[in-house]
Amino acid sequence: MSENAGREALYSVRGSARLAVTGLGLAGGAWVLRAVWHIRLALAGEPASGPPDQGAGRHRPLNSLEDSYHLVSTAGGILTLLCAALFIGWLGRMRDNARALSGRPPRHAGIWVYVSWFVPVANLWIPRGIVADIHHRSAPDRKLPVVVNVWWALWLVGMVTGVGLMYDGDTDDVIARAYHGVTTLLVADVAVVGAAVAAILMVRALTAAQLVHIDARLRTPGGDPLKETVRAFDRD
């Protein structure tokens, strides 16, 4: 790859980082709200009529608290999907820049940026590996920030103990869990909210580290910025 080609391949990540942070904040807030409703359901206790899902395909009418939880859960799901799209958008730009800065292809094929979160077993380590690889290629002189491992540990706890993208039950099942075993739901809620906060710190740290090296790449040996390229970055 020539120096000019490398420069042309660099993208601004400031805007995508801001969007990812916003999405993570919204998703984290949504999970805080879910945790509040889990506690409310647990304190209210299961009605005498039993759980919403009565079995054999029969469902009883929801009470007002259960009905409001459905709304909270739906809103949380929408915000989580929005967050995922914004986070992956940031990750893709960071990956492209890391490839341009290092002059070497990424460790994992591009398709893994999208599917690694859902493929069993692979989803336990490949997403973190993609993030770590981006950092190592973007800023080889810097150690991987501790917050990356904190984010991933919390994400795994939330994934294996709770509900969300990795949970195959419906909302009524979650309501029943809140009535009879809210502890695991709350552990998952705390882990997911913590993961969102850690991810915000991670996005900021990795973006800042990459921008330092991008700034160095965008300067001539004499120290003058390459005006056209810098102008493209400033527009973001």
Structure, described:
With 236 residues, the protein is mainly α. It contains 9 helices and 2 strands. A hairpin with a 2-residue loop joins strand 1 (53-55) and strand 2. The longest helix has 39 residues, at 64-102.
Overall 3D shape:
elongated
Number of helical segments? 9
Structural class per helix/strand content? Answer: mainly alpha
Kindly state the number of beta strands. 2
Largest sheet: 2 strands, antiparallel
Q: Residue-averaged pLDDT, rounded?
A: 84
How much helix, percentage-wise, in residues?
Answer: 55-70%
Secondary-structure element series: HHEEHHHHHHH
Strand arrangement across the biggest beta sheet: 1-2
> If you compute it from the alpha carbons, what radius of gyration comes out, rounded to the nearest whole angstrom?
22 Å
Spans with pLDDT under 50 lasting ≥5 residues? 1-8, 222-235
What amount of the residues lies in strands? under 5%
Task: Note the gap between the termini.
Answer: 25 Å
Oligomer: single chain
